[in-house]
Amino acid sequence: MSLTAVDTTTRLPDLSAVPAVDEVGVNERVARFQSRSIKTASKIEALKLVLSMIDLTTLEGQDTPGKVRQLCQKAIHLHDALPDLPHVAAVCVYPTMVGVAREALAGRDINIASVATAFPSGQAPLSVKLEDTRMAVAAGANEIDMVISRGEFLAGHHGRVFDEIVAIKEACGDAHLKVILETGELGTLDRVRKASVLAMHAGADFIKTSTGKIQPAATMQVTLVMLQAIRDYYYDTGRMVGMKPAGGISSAKLAVHYLVMLRETLGNAWMTPDWFRFGASSLANDVLMQLQKQKTGVYQSPDYFSKD
């Protein structure tokens, strides 16, 4: 399909025109994605692709420079017994830890992502959110994961949410912006769809399900709705937007189901770390265990992998 891009910047979309979500249809499609049978050779390639799409994450109050350095070493050397593995897409940390990650990853082709905008609640004045974002970028982050103001969105103040995303996008400079919807707090798939549309029109480079601090976090249902919103936005504008499910994706089997859904919804163009990410802390270990199983025929003990 030949598409001509149009300028959608700073243009608040008419959310009343966003089509309603067929929840029954979404559940049926997800069930079909989960029933796909994948041959061994394709499974190995899928597992390696999953690894390359992971934003290896630590976002805890007890984070220390030492813990972040250890995470960065894991990002660089996932498993020495499997030398042909890709590296992860990014390391994701709080703004205060970006400088530590930058030093640990110097010379490596691994992105540095940082949460910002009063993560995870988003309950701060815009001036604080802008300073939070600028500080992370100045410290070396080339990706910013911001949270929307869910209270404003649920109150129907869509223009305020839109304007805030536009302002944060400007504060990012050259850094890519991932906009976290916190779908577990939005409540319905219709709201997830509308929030996705709003974020993309405001300039999001990625839309992301969750902070990982609220349950439910990522589900295949909300991710499918967001992927469909990305597809329709692309058809309307010609601009590709990435997708990042985050929170609760800890098994390799589930991650492969997400890849099946991604390919059948958006196609091969999105099947790269440039356009799809998993926000995860423990997913990498399960993928490594599955790859070791494919290589040796037996599972390696979880004790052979770092807990970070």
Which helices and strands, and how do they pair?
Blueprint: H1 23-34, H2 40-52, E1 54-57, H3 65-76, E2 90-93, H4 98-104, E3 111-116, H5 126-139, E4 143-147, H6 150-154, H7 158-172, E5 176-180, H8 183-186, H9 189-201, E6 206-208, H10 220-237, E7 242-244, H11 252-266, E8 278-280, H12 283-296
Parallel strand pairs: 1-2, 1-8, 2-3, 3-4, 4-5, 5-6, 6-7
Describe the structure.
The chain is of the alpha/beta class and about 300 residues long. It has a single domain (about 15-295), classed as Alpha-Beta Barrel (TIM Barrel), CATH 3.20.20. The protein contains 12 helices and 8 strands. It has helices at about 25-35, 40-50, 65-75, 100-105, 125-140, 150-155, 160-170, 185, 190-200, 220-235, 250-265, 285-295, and strands at about 55, 90-95, 110-115, 145, 175-180, 205-210, 240-245, 280. The chain has an 8-stranded parallel β-sheet with strand order 7-6-5-4-3-2-1-8. Helix 3 (about 65-75) links the parallel strand 1 and strand 2. Helix 5 runs parallel beside helix 7. The radius of gyration is 19 Å and the shape is globular.
